[in-house]
Amino acid sequence: MDNPVVDRPDQSRFELAIGDELALAYYRIEGDRIVLTHTEVPQALSGQGVGSRLAKGVFERIRASGRKVVPRCSFMAGWVSRHPEYNDIFDG
Fold first, then answer.
1. Which residue, 25, 48, 76, 79, is most buried by CB atoms nearer than 10 A?
2. How far apart are CA 57 and CA 54, in angstroms?
């Protein structure tokens, strides 16, 4: 389970592939900020930590991009609130 989170800017989302399933984090760009708007984890993957793996990958990709993140999605907002190591890229 070492699949990377992939950015799909043409679809405004990050993806984490697990087998034939995709966990998704949708976003929009606002200047130098990425606003996370919605997260989806397929029911088949529920309870397996896939959402947390997606979140960690998303925040790492955002950090690497040099942008700030605004988590409007309740899942992502809750996740980042429990991970202060990402405070440096948190905005809002």
1. 25
2. 5
Partner residues linked to 82 by β-bridges: none
25 closest CA partner among 66, 56, 67, 3: 56
Tens-digit pLDDT string for the chain (92 aa):
467 999 999 999 999 999 999 999 999 999 999 999 999 999 999 999 999 999 999 999 999 999 999 999 999 999 999 999 999 999 97
Indicate left, alpha or beta for 66 from its phi (over 0: left) and psi (-120 to 50: alpha). left
The number of angstroms, rounded, from the C-alpha of 56 to the middle of its chain's C-alpha atoms is 7
Q: Record the tokens describing residue 56, joined without a space.
A: 């960690």
Contact criterion met (CB below 8 Å) for 39 and 33: no
Q: Both tokens of residue 68? A: 């700030």
Tokens of 40: 């989806």
